[in-house]
Amino acid sequence: MPLPLRLAAITSLVALAVPALAQGVPELADLVGARAAGAETQMEARGYRLAGGSTVRDMKFTFWWNDRKRACVSVSTVEGRYASIQPVPAGTCDGAQAGPQPVPQTPPPSDQDAGSLVLVCYGAGTRPSVTTAPDYKWNADRHKWEWSSRLESSTQGFSSDVQLELYGDHGRIHLGPSLVPPIHSGGSNGWWDLDALSVTPTQITGSYRLNGMNKPKFTIDRRTGRIDIRAMTNFAGQCDIGNWANGTRRF
User: What is the mean pLDDT of the chain?
Assistant: First the structure.
């Protein structure tokens, strides 16, 4: 492709991508795309303090707590720049919270006892996408090339969270919006029941049904905390145990 067309294509794709990345926490949207070093200073200036973090593939996740807002956010960093800023459950920033904690308005279901296993996972993935790319087409009537556009199949990166609740031989999974296809069925408030669930001392496997054609399978390594979901939309991340049990191992 000639250089002018390549530059135009890149500009077009960037313009399409920026609004998607900017979604999440409106007051911090201007930091998406900023260099991490300077953005961290801005986070602190706006009342946030670092509460922890993890690394998945080439993406780094940090969690920030705001005492005034009683809110926790997840920041993903790629190649030294903030890629996305998303709100996450307050429990993710447990280590940074100070002062009296608000009483939950809705208690957890009675079956979420200390013997259950609740996992909160954060990571990144890819999904099929369609983008508009600039192009030139020959106009035989006017005998010249004219500007046009075309649709191209591609993949889109995203960051998301996944939550799992396991109770003996059954359980359910909660998916972030990026992991839910436009056409889906069977879910309840973002939760899907697990099928073929297998829990061993070293591994957790299972599947769930989003629709007739899309039945993702997941694997969790209990030694490392890594989760992998394989389907039309792929996802890999890191899991930590929830607050329902106080075990000494990762989970």
Answer: 75
Structure tokens at 184: 């889906």
**Strands of the 195-199 sheet, one edge to the other:** 191-193, 170-175, 144-167, 117-139, 234-241, 226-230, 217-221, 203-207, 195-199
Query: In terms of pLDDT, which residue wins out, 18 or 222?
Result: 222
Sign of CA dihedral 110, 114, 115, 117: positive
pLDDT number for residue 187: 79
CA dist 124 → 25, 157, 205 (Å)? 18, 7, 19
Burial class (CB in 10 A: 0-12, 13-18, 19+), 14: exposed
Domains of the chain, residue spans: 3-96, 117-241
Which strand (E) or helix (H) includes residue 45? helix 36-45
Q: Is the pLDDT of residue 9 over 50?
A: no
* 125 neighbors 157 (Cβ within 8 angstroms): yes
Rounded distance between C-alpha atoms, residue 104 and residue 101, angstroms: 9
DSSP string, 158-214: EEEEEEEEEETTEEEEEE-GGGS-SS--S-BTTEEE-EEEEE-SSEEEEE--SBTTB
Q: Residue 124's beta-bridge partner residues?
A: 159, 236
Q: Which two tokens stand for residue 76?
A: 């993903």
Helices and strands per DSSP (H, E), number in the chain: 2, 13
Chain-centre distance for alpha carbon 186: 21
